[in-house]
Write a structure and sequence with these properties.
Mean pLDDT: 89
Number of strands: 10
Strand order of the largest sheet: 1-10-9-4-7
Number of helices: 2
Strand content: 35-45%
CATH topology: Immunoglobulin-like
Low-confidence stretches: 4-15
Structural class: mainly beta
CATH architecture: Sandwich
Largest sheet: 5 strands, antiparallel
Order of helices and strands: EEEEEEHEEHEE
Shape: elongated
CATH class: Mainly Beta
């Protein structure tokens, strides 16, 4: 469950006001890791930004995922929309000893300018030993 920060005028999104509710999630799919920014709320989110507590790399270690423009500013994120980006094959990610415990701090606004903040901690270690089947051509 995301930890909601109600300091500095931020309020809790989601159930209480049916506003935007932005999360960051890691997705494991057939041995591949992805990271997604998702608005799981009923209203659009504006000026979405994500800060991670540590850097992590993908695409064979060549790309600093945390520096992607996707996480700096999404001007508009529609309700129930997600933006997903590939991180790496899980074997490559874990083989490089990339961080497994990652904290994402998310900030965004609704149409009236009300600010929201959420902090979500992910433990990617749960994916390390999950089996998967390689398909032909991989």
């Amino acid at each position: 469950m995301p930890e909601r920060d109600e300091t500095e005028g931020a309020t809790m999104p989601g159930a209480r006001d049916n506003g935007p509710d932005v999360i960051v999630d890691f997705i494991f799919d057939d041995g591949l890791l992805f990271v997604a920014v998702q608005n799981i709320g009923d209203k659009p989110a504006y000026k979405v930004s994500v800060q991670f507590d540590r850097k992590f790399h993908g695409v064979g270690g060549a790309k600093d995922i945390t520096e992607m423009p996707l996480f700096r500013n999404i001007e508009f994120l529609a309700p129930w929309k997600d933006i997903v980006t590939f991180v790496d094959a899980s074997a490559a990610y874990f083989g490089r000893d990339e961080p497994t415990r990652i904290l994402a701090r998310i900030s965004y606004q609704d149409a009236q300018g009300k600010r929201y903040r959420a902090t979500i901690t992910h433990d990617l270690e749960i994916y390390r030993d999950i089996g998967y089947v390689r398909r032909e051509g991989e």
